[in-house]
Amino acid sequence: MKHPLNWRVTLLALLVSSSAAFADSRPATAPAAATAPHVITQRPGHAGIASANFHATDAGLEVLAKGGNAFDAAIAVASTLSIVEPESSGIGGGFMAVLHRASDGKDVFIDARETAPAAVNTKDYLNKDGTPNRDTALNGPLSAGIPGEPAGLAWLSKHYGKLPLKDALTPAIRLAREGFQPDGRLINAITERQDDIKRWPASTAKYLPEGKPPVAGQVWRDPDQARTLEILGEQGADGFYRGEVGKKLVDAVRAAGGNWTAKDLESYQIKERTPITVDYRGYRVVTAPPASSGGVAVAEILNILSGYDLTKLDDAHRTHLVIEAMRRAFRDHNDYLGDPDFVKMPLDMLLSPYYAAGLRMTILADKATPSSMLPASIAVDPGMHTTHFSVIDKGGNIASITLTVNYTMGSTFVAAGTGVLLNDEMDDFALVPNKPNVYGLLGSAANAPEPGKRMLSSMTPSIVFGADRVGVIGSPGGSTIITQVLEGILAFMDGKDAQGVAAQKRFHHQYMPDRVDVEPGAFDPATADALTRMGHTLKERSPWGYMNVVTWDLKTNKLDAASDPRRESGLGKVQ
Ligand code: DON
Fold it and tell me: What is the pLDDT of residue 435?
């Protein structure tokens, strides 16, 4: 925890010095405890899936047609993405999921995040002169955490699915064997990362088979990964973390200078956690708890915003308040959050409406608070890798899942003989105190690497329950995941349909740097002018995340599935 005293003193100074402190338009009251299961008795009778790739959406629909539920479909979608969208996620990476089980209304969070190997050593991420070594943090086996996705898929199947794991993996295995045509995004990702890929022979053989990236129209096969998925299907998690596959992973990592051991793999465990729940404007948002920072930040922002009637404000003032709430939530993100199994976090405080009310009082009606008045943290270059998909099945089960290998093509390191591309999630730790990671996020001791610890994530898979509508929302985007999901949630509450939520123009503030990143076209000139006059620094930026959304209208009982038009429309399907 950094500067707690300084922080409070500065807030107080800001309050006292400002006679113009913005009077809240509504009193701050504690919302009702939001813990009861959310039972919805009605059933949609049809299903909707939105993912980042049509093979993956179709794989999910195929498994539903075979009698699977949303969780079996999620396994099919995730495993197919591992084949067709390896730049974003895969069985060498991890995921975080918010699930809703229709039969009993249980909302649960599945933490299939990677962990640090026991031999993790911060010196490996420093150059001889003590400066951060960005290469070991982002490339090759030292950058890879112990994968969580295979255990997560096995867990989903065992505890929530209806079909045997191998049946849910069948579409991915078939596609990997029969072949598919890589899309433009995969070709671009391989092209962008080819110099790093060339450093590892198994990676070169897989991604640069003729010494260069694949070209459009070429048919691609992934027999090694097909075999690994098959063993996972036959043996469950042990098929990946032990035996033939586990040995190959450890041998490959160690031969290339990494430090994994068989014990690291054998001791990997899925964590089932209670999601974060926040009530806002008659909606209940169920979202990701630590080891993600996303849900805490979304809850803190919504709690701050709950003191205003945003619907009565013009665009500039509404946006100003949202930015100020983001600024304050990201300040806390950097200082307090980490793996809940390792660090004590003041979650009661961060999630309290009274804490939010205190923060709200420091927000001026029409003036930006310089982040420098709210002590300490840095910048972003999210890139667009990582992936989110949303599923609702005909029985009303819901899966909201964000998956990642971290940076584009993860570590670029494929473990020979397994087809598994390893993540570079170690960079999500605060590897070097007070030095930014690839998303410009700074961290504190709470997110320092330790053996077996999960690195803090921004992934924010969420489900929004309203009296008349349910929305399943999430996005990639590094640190901007949090603000994009927040804006998606607000757009949903404003009544936008799945397409409208996915297409919603975006903006982002993460405390430091003290600027608002803005999607071109997000603000009309008058709003942009007004925000600038209030003291906000606006900076246009692209690209933004890819949101895949499914909504359920409880009045008409209709599902709607939409993929992000920034990427490719039509990847959301209802059947
Ligand atoms: O878990 C995290 O927060 C990051 N590894 C996510 C990375 C990401 O979203 C990349 N870009 N779009």
Answer: 78
| Domain co-membership, 371 together with 506 | yes
Strand order in the sheet with 106-112: 271-273, 106-112, 94-101, 398-404, 387-392, 48-50, 572-574
285 has which bridge partners?
278, 464
| 442 is a domain residue | no
Q: Is 319 annotated as a binding residue?
A: no
- Judge whether residue 315 has pLDDT over 70: yes
Give the model confidence (pLDDT) of 67-95 as tens digits.
999 999 999 999 999 999 999 999 999 99
Number of domains in the chain: 2
Whether the model clears a pTM of 0.90, i.e. scores above it, the answer is: yes
Residue 481 Cβ < 6 Å to ligand 1: yes
Cβ 479 under 6 angstroms from ligand 1: no
- Report the distance separating Cα 118 and Cα 539, nearest Å: 41
Q: Token pair 């199994």 is at which residue?
A: 341
- Give the HSE-up count for residue 158: Cα atoms under 13 Å, Cβ half-sphere: 14
3-state DSSP call for residue 381?
Answer: coil
Q: Say whether pLDDT at 526 is over 60.
A: yes
Residue 383 Cβ inside 6 Å of ligand 1? The answer reads: yes
Q: Which domain holds residue 490?
A: 273-383+460-574
Which residue's alpha carbon is nearest to atom 2 within ligand 1? 457
